[in-house]
Amino acid sequence: MSTTSTKLKEVKLYIDGEYVESSSNSLFEVKNPATQEVIAKVHEASYEDVDRACNAARRAFEEGPWRTMTLSERSAKIRRMAEIIMERKDELARLEAEDVGKPYPVALEREIPRAANNLKFFADFMEQKGNESYPMDDEYLNYTRYEPLGVASLITPWNLPFMLTTWKLGPCLAAGNTAVIKPAETTPLTVSLLGEIAKEAGIPDGVVNVIHGFGTESAGEYMTTHPEVDLISFTGETSTGKAIMKNGADTLKKVSFELGGKAANIVFEDANLDKAIPVSIQAAFMNSGQVCLAGSRILVQRSIFDEFVERFKQAASELKVGDPQDAETDMGPVVSEEHYKKVTSYLKIAEEENSTLVYGGKRPDLPEHLKDGYYLEPTIYIQEDPNARICQEEIFGPIVTLIPFDTEEEALEIANNTEYGLNGVIWTDNLQRAHRVSHHVRAGTIWVNCWFVRDLRVPFGGFKKSGVGREGGNSSIEFFTEAKNVCIAL
Ligand code: NAD
């Protein structure tokens, strides 16, 4: 399949168990970022549509049977969704590649299976999770129940559309809530199929609703202010998180935010560079650098700096930039024209800040059918000043900065000199240093001698402006439930 063989799709809203058109008859276009070809016309949800979706979710929550069915029955339906996703994984991966511009093998081998696993994991986790109990001598017994909370707004970004939506939907459904989902306006294709997948799996109508639209004064804002919504799980930019928090305040919605990042990837002189370099390349350029967990600030100890730069540059030059549908492609375009402009604006900023260009910095040479795609070469700068904008701002594209340091203290100071705190990466063969530095980097996830390894049971989220709350395992279940204590006199 080639990026040019797509046919125009019509993407409708999924409300109360059926696909419907926008009540305002408003449609917007979605383009393939590798070609600029229009691939879909999407129905934009009006306020009335969002209102219908939220009311349907409320009805499905209050009237059942979703909330009241047995946990094993509910979990079986969620597991069935996971199975259907795996049965349709090729189609979903093709769509994700077409919509986001990510290499098809990455979607097929990693993201779609992970999406299925998000659902399966939380169905299993909820079933296996016991309840706490606190006996008070022989007089009383306390036990804690985790009950569903209500209607959840699930809002996701464009970089990992299907994976991140199921990451929220899994615990939301497993806990017995109902959902109104909105994928990013740039990448709605795969998430729109969750409606039919839920239906086929036997999820009752109204439990899963999928709407489409934009943020401010559009579907996003409506679903975060709507009185029937009890909680909001949002992944996206820090500035959007702030707006959502304000919008949800009047109706006291519970919020969980996974926001931006600017991770330090710290390479000490005793690191195994044979491992550190290929993984740092992944951390820098996977999904064209459009990963919240990207290791976009690479701090390298000065004694190995020159060697690291040479080898890192060589490895970047070996990445194959090209057609996302091609099995050989390592890196596709960035997601949209607007984002391309943002990412490439940093080339000028880097120049103005006297950064040294090590590699990249321009459009790659590509075949004719990709000439309009939003492509940028993997781009590497050296910048000595950690306060420079390219070291501080989330570029969210294939641009990384190498920053030299002399001592462990200096590395920590640079690593923590950011408003973000989502994750950090440490490369060292010194066990004590690995622990010491892990404890001092102010971020929610630290990877030592690895990156992007995920156990769905562990808490995931950000310090500082990288998030509010945690997702994963018990953290997700606590967010999507109300804890109730029952105290019985014995
Ligand atoms: P974004 O904040 O622009 O949009 C995310 C979603 O929010 C979209 O669906 C959008 O339509 C919606 N939205 C926008 N304004 C809104 C409003 N006022 N009210 C309600 N909804 C609104 O983010 P993006 O550009 O799509 O994604 C990139 C960002 O996501 C980066 O900052 C990245 O770091 C972050 N991200 C974080 C994680 C994480 O786990 N921490 C994971 C992936 C991406």
From TrEMBL:
Alphabetical list of PROSITE patterns matching this protein: ALDEHYDE_DEHYDR_CYS (PS00070), ALDEHYDE_DEHYDR_GLU (PS00687)
One Pfam family in the UniProt entry: Aldedh
Active site (UniProt): 258
GO MF term set: oxidoreductase activity, acting on the aldehyde or oxo group of donors, NAD or NADP as acceptor
InterPro entries with a match to the protein in the record: Ald_DH/histidinol_DH (IPR016161), Ald_DH_C (IPR016163), Ald_DH_CS_CYS (IPR016160), Ald_DH_CS_GLU (IPR029510), Ald_DH_N (IPR016162), Aldehyde_DH_dom (IPR015590)
Keywords for the protein's UniProt record, in alphabetical order: NAD, Oxidoreductase
PANTHER family for the chain: 2-AMINOMUCONIC SEMIALDEHYDE DEHYDROGENASE
Protein name: 5-carboxymethyl-2-hydroxymuconate semialdehyde dehydrogenase
